[in-house]
Fold these 2 entries.
Entry 1:
Amino acid sequence: MKRALITGVTGQDGSYLAELLLDKDYEVHGIVRRSSTFNRQRIDHLRSDAATRERFHLHYGDLGDAESLASVLAETKPEEVYNLAAQSHVGISFSQPSYTGDVSGLGAMRLLEAVRRIVPEARFYQASSSELFGKAVETPQRESTPFHPRSPYGVAKLYAFWATVNYREAYGLFTANGILFNHESPRRGENFVTRKITQAVAEIAAGRRDSVALGNLEARRDWGYAGEFVRAMWLMLQRETPEDYVIGTGETHSVREFAQLAFREAGVELVWDGEGEDEVGKDAATGAVRVRVDSEYYRPSEVDLLLSDPSRARDELGWTPEVHFEQLVRMMVRSDLAAVGVVL
Ligand code: NAP
Ligand code: G4F
């Protein structure tokens, strides 16, 4: 039985990756942080299900605390380590720049150093991000595209990316960066734009609120489904030699398109009126304002356009995404509608 350690196991990706590995008969260890209230909703089913609970173990630790990382590695001796933990919100990284650098940047270095000292044979996956491309110098973005991060989060992830490469080159560790483009799901955190929209659509349909306030409607992202992106992480660690891979769908859509489609899924056709901060999206049938623009959600520097070229992952890992944009939006809206008890 293989043993894996996942940091960030309570997050969106951590929960899907834990499911995947348990399904492959791994023993899975996850690092969780202490919090005053439990936040394990995404993994509770794995702790109660008879088929998985014996092979799924949680340990307290924090990427800010090197000793806790070393202790967990010494206790669990994993063969694969997936570093998914991060302060992962780009907008919030402008409010907490040095904390984000500490956790999302230096945290990866702390873990790499602990791996080097305690389990140097282990294979290491780093959750790198398309935010590295930032003010992208070419489109689509591929492994060779130069980086130009646009946020404290992107800068922190740049440090972690190069730390991962450096430990491969300096010490011969098996380390791989997955440069993942945006991936979403019904488990996506509620303050990322996709989930914020689908949750608002559901609450509006349930009569619990009137509208949703968004920032930049023109930003374009390459949005895929988290449930299938985690398989690419695992595939990277099964290779003979470690490499870094771009993972995305090869399609790009704007925040406006996402909102349009999400409301359509709940039977509301949006028409747009006005410009800039005065723009609104109205229900074409009733004239009710459903989307507003609020500059509070603008970022000091924006990533305007992300679009992946995932051909290397297709050719070398055999990984191709199956869930397309429309299916992703539908899946997320339906899940949020079900959560508020709305059946259309
Ligand atoms: P997420 O839902 O925000 O999950 C982040 C996880 O990190 C949570 O389990 C969180 O724990 C944990 N964490 C945060 N700070 C920590 C600390 N100091 N010590 C230990 N754990 C800590 O993020 P995600 O969407 O699953 O993304 C997973 C990883 O991929 C992240 O590194 C993210 O930056 C990266 N990434 C994500 C995407 C995407 O589109 N989703 C794309 C590219 C890269 P709590 O539950 O206690 O908060
Ligand atoms: O959903 P977002 O917050 O995701 P963002 O910034 O692209 O970051 C996500 O993807 C990265 C990979 O590219 C990950 F590394 C990172 O951890 C995270 O998972 O914002 C997407 C776009 C941005 O351009 C933002 O300005 O949507 C725009 N936006 C417009 N209104 C909004 C809003 N974003 C948020 N969060 N909230 C809004 O109201």
Note: The chain has a mean pLDDT of 98.
Entry 2:
Amino acid sequence: MKQINSILIANRGEIASRIIRTCKKMGISSIAVYSDADRNALYVKQADKAVFIGESNPALSYLDMGKIIQVAQSVKADAIHPGYGFLSENADFAKSCATAGIIFIGPNPEAIQAMGSKSEAKGLMEEHGVPTVPGYKGKDQSSTRLISEALKMDFPVLLKATAGGGGKGMRIVHKEADLESAIESAKRESLSSFGNDELIVEKYISSGRHIEIQIFGDQHGNAIHLLERECSIQRRYQKVIEESPSPVLTEALRKQMGESAVMAAKALNYDNAGTVEFIFEEKTGNYYFLEVNTRLQVEHPVTEEITGLDLVQMQIESAQGLALKIKQKNVRGCGYAIEARLYAEDAENDFTPVTGKILKFEYPEMDGLRIESAIESGSEISVFYDPMIAKIIIREENRQQAHRKLNYFLKNLVCLGTKTNQDFLLHLTEQADFINGNYDTHFIKDKINLKNIAAKTEEELFTACIAACLVDWNKRENSRGLLKSVPSGWRSSFYDYQKETYLHNDKELVLQYRYQDDLFYFKNGEELLSVSLIQVEGDEISFETKGLRWQFTVLKSGMDFYLHNADIGNLKIEQKERFPKKKKEKVKGGYEAPMPSQILKIMVKPNQEVKSGEALIVISSMKMENTIYAEEDGLIEEVYAKEGDNVEAGFLLMKLKSKEAIL
Ligand code: ADP
């Protein structure tokens, strides 16, 4: 048996850090790989060795199998850990590793392959007695056949791309009249995304919970499960909160689902870490197989926290050919664990990813808290990769205690510089239905009002502006060399007020104040508020008003202030320039990149006629594809981007002359 002494990690970010940690613990030397964009990343510094593998575009670095294997050989790595995403579920990659004499830390390639197709996966599961969603998964893919199969079921039905993933190529159909066009569009999307247009048809479970079971196998035919994770809190088919135990599973159901998952593992000769996903219908107590993820999941820490196991270590041991050390009867869940994913994204704007620099990332230390992150103050969230900032994991005796801690943590976490979902997560943890475990996979969409989650009251804005104003005042005060005895803001006419104007979401906030006898007086309508500045230390400021002590973190970048206060939350205010530059004018008929993106496909050429609603261009930003459509009939005047380009938000992509303008 070949011992693993060194591991190349074919991944980046927090999962690379996570794997490095276990390597260190086991005395295994870790080799990181990094692209241009990751040159200064934390995980690269943490690894024992690091190798540059090319451009930031993942296709030219983290997804380049040949290059990864070549690097692994050149550093004489015994094994490759693929993490999640990228090459982790690529059977060809697993095979290439074996051919090159390198151990792939994951299941055997046949198991990966078998789970790569939804129709085959379902077929195999049915054969082995794992419950699946009723439906059609046949070879006859004609529209007539798919329609007739769909009509055998009650509406709504679900069309799914056999080769699909990430919710792509999926269509919910509510009535017969919509079937044909839904089939066509699902096929089109599936073909362009996966190079295969086969579909399966399923009964749509209208109110389902996503419950998954962690499985583990070894090369000696042993397979066990490590209990469940409830992952129903999702947005855009992607998880944001995961927890264990699930608030709805009875001991009997847990046992039954666990046994089904082990049957799935046995059916696949499964020999590493994997996850069997089920959709659970609360009203009937039925559960159905969805898919097997043949890798370590993002949310694996939840399982580690309640079982006390190190899943990465178990992966390494299984890949090395060691037998599982733990038996099913010894697997015990202790307490409760929850994970919340902190993302750079705009919750109020359909969770669109955002890019930018994290100016400050600091959080309170707490018992039972585990942070998985490869971000530090100054880290960049780039357009190339997933915008996850950190995973916040809390372990406690029970749900209630853990939720209280999570809420406290989210209030006190300082993560400033870009928009994040921090306020959204906080809001979520305060919803009664969330606290009581009363939800299905539509919870965020149906039950959370996403508008104004981060809205602030007049009073809160006023207080935040005071913090910003005092930080600036203090800076001016410290930098004045001359006239030391005359405080900054001194006016020859004693009662003159100074004025600062700030903008918050385009709303203008005017602050008038004067400084006298060590106190600041801020005008608040008719009232005059006296404020005493207590301390400014680094980015932290504290002041007192009406006997109440306020504490803010304030970061200034250019004219922008990023502020955080535990009660008010995060906010950004802009200092209004005294002589503002002219705002960039919007080009008539212009189509701009809505966010920093890469141009994937341009469907039109100059002088081409287009119809309103026609697709013009496909862009990608942080794993998310976006199509921009024509807003009116007209003629393409000019195209300014080309395929493969990386563009900033606001970049003018093309110009369209409207039909009216042509006539
Ligand atoms: P993907 O491979 O694209 O992630 P999945 O089969 O795992 O596809 O499904 C993604 C999500 O879609 C699930 O987490 C679940 O919320 C929902 N879903 C899948 N199948 C069904 C179904 N038959 N009925 C209702 N919801 C479903």
Note: The chain has 17 helices and 39 strands.
